[in-house]
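Tokens help. Consider this.
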Amino acid sequence: MTAMGSHVPIERAEMRSRDLDLVREMISQRYTDHLPQVRGDARRFGFRSGFARAGALSIDRVSYQACMAITADPHDTILIIRMVSGGFDVSAGRQRRQVSGDEALFLPHTGLDMVQDWPRYEVVQFPAEAVTRLADQLGVAPADFRFDAMTAVSPAANRIWLATHARLAGLLDTPAEGVPALLLSAAIDIAAAAALSVFPNATMTVDYVAGPGRVAPATVRRAVAYIDEHAAEPVTSEDIAAAAGVSVRAVQAGFRRHLDITPMGYLRRVRLERAHRDLRAADPTTGATVAAVARGWGFTDLSRFAADYRAAFGRLPRHTLHT
């Protein structure tokens, strides 16, 4: 079985409106309840949104033709804004930040007070669970996890988020009607990893804890069997550990000891082999492409896919497809 047939549809919506009540209702449904007010002449108010969503990942391109004062209730997803132009002043408890063009802004889960001055920005939204799951792997329990600030730890980190944002936007901007489920899962994981790398949070100060003890070969064999059977599906480290009956750290230690590879590295190798099989069977005259096969197996970076493929099989994937 391949992952090629499992796609998540992309929902798209465009909105232009001068009706503040209509805009408030739409934003409340999409994110959280909030109260927007126009500062100045309300007759000049205008709003525009270009929205795309696949599963739990969405991007919204928003612009207000007005200076807005907005009070928003707490929300339960990850919301990260990339400013394009205009001003954005946000207060959350004791935190306050002002951002402008080409800056990334993490919106805390608390209630927010915002002043937006003729802003244009793009909002990425994905599940908070993706972040807490990854933080747990890094040694911070979900109950102890928190973000500590709204802006990036450095200009270099800010650029990392902007690059991640561009990749996520490109995925949802594709003219295709759907995104491969495996690729969508990988994209959400990338977004979570970038958020943890860019915005100050508890994983940046976690103490080192000694690793687990010896893991039996049978445990690793159970994990390998699970990966081999489920490689065409979205698979996490937690899934592999649960199948093996041990903790995430234990299964990672077992793979390093017995196979000299990480569980996710082994999963990547299996998917690379399956992609190789699909390329050998594919017919380019029917429209089959290297990109479609690679993305169907969750490879989001086609340049890296080509390099890894060549290292594994001694030739470029396009040569396999066309011979």
About this structure: The radius of gyration is 22 Å.
